[in-house]
Amino acid sequence: MPTRPVRTFAVALLAALLGALLPATAARAGTVQGGRLDWGIKSSFQSYVTGPVAKGGFKLKSGAATAGGSLFRFHSAAGSYDPDSGAFEASYSGGVTFQGHQKPDGVYELDMTISRPTVKISGGKGTLYVDVSSKAKDSGAVTDRSQVAFASLGVGGINMKGGNSPLSLTNLPATLTAEGAKAFAGYYGAGTQLDPVSLSADVKTAPADRPTPSATAAQPGATAETPQAPGAFADAAVDWGVRRTFREYVTGSVGQGRWTLAEGAQDGGALFRFPQGKGSFDGTKGALDAAFAGTVQFTGAHLDLTLGRMSVKVENGKGVLSADVTTGGATKNAVPLVEFDAKGLKTEGKLATLTEAPATLTEGGSQAFNSMYKAGTEMDPVSLAVALDSTAQLPALPDLGSTASPAPASASPSAEPAAQAAESSKSSNTGLFVALAVAVLVLAGGGTFLVVRRRRTPTDVPQ
User: Fold this and answer.
1) Which regions of 177-252 does DSSP assign to beta strands (E)?
2) How far apart are the C-alpha atoms of 462 and 190, rounded to whole Å?
3) Helix or strand holding residue 16 (H, E)
4) What DSSP character marks residue 218?
5) pLDDT digits (tens, 9 = 90+) for 38-66
6) In the 8-state DSSP scheme, what is residue 227?
7) Secondary element (H or E) of residue 129
8) Of 362, 404, 436, whose CA–CA distance to 166 is shortest?
9) pLDDT tens digits, one per residue of 222-267
10) What is the pTM of this model?
11) Contact 325, 332 (CB under 8 A)
């Protein structure tokens, strides 16, 4: 038996090492905040909806965007990640509505919305959950389901342990579940292969600090100390993506161009934000008259269009978005671009909002786009947010994360950053584990020392 001094020393050493190891491990657990998920749902379904049989299309909602030829991009990941167990959960914002087979009365026989995809990975299994609103193919009955286990994800061979931020998973195979088949309105059976899923997620070791009311006092438009004039507001922003197909044209093989933001305009992926609104708001009448900062310039083959000095007027439930329009070096001021339905403008607390109001092109807007679109053409929806005092927070822009989008061209799932970080983590902790083993052996074996080296197991290697 070991002597009392030896046992005492070993116990003390063991306690010290456990104290050093366990807090370090626990501190690595993180919160997912920011990132994107790219998924085409099912490309053949997209083709069917937009093809000559269904003669339909799709609409994006809640900040979702398109990416590449047939991908939908969801944003603002929120969830958790445990690098010790590899357990990962992240929910993404945004949605897409498919509509087709329109009847004479304007009703669509095919009408389905998929939104809020959530990925959960644990114990070598992965599942994709979504909110689904769908109309049954046979009966036409509409059902709304929240967080349906829509597809199983192929995550076998991926080591999720020990990952650093940002995490990135590419082309995860997705297979429709029985529950997902029901939610898919009967168009496909369980076991059908869906489009693969690619995602990224920023992992923070602690929740991000929330802005304090004092932080908003410095925003243009108002200060906490300065009283506001009657009808005035502290800040405002208008979000508008112009038109999805126009953006795709600009950056595509025909337009071969891009857009450039200036003077404070911000890119939200599927929309542009024009901030620093100033003007007046009458909540009783639902009336708004505001001007905003920021410009967006579209350039490309035979294209040079700048929209700036955005302004919005809302009265009697109708809204008009105007801008200074510059083409070919000539500028026209305050051109009405789109008209939108503003009946949904509402005030809650210290914030007035209008979310994704349907918008149509005006005659002046048609001329601004060189008659590329006719007056009355459906454009991207308009969203408004008005902070009625300096303590109100405007809605956040979609958070696409700190990394470039997951590369959809990858041939197989990849979690190399996670695997590399896991190896680094093992190396940094090896000394602690060795000393821990020594202490245990001293305690149990009376001073016989055996150095144990951790060996790499097949599960440490991405397959």
Assistant:
1) 193-204, 235-240
2) 28
3) helix 4-27
4) T
5) 999 999 999 999 999 999 999 999 999 99
6) P
7) strand 125-135
8) 404
9) 444 444 666 889 999 999 999 999 999 999 889 999 999 999 999 9
10) 0.73
11) yes
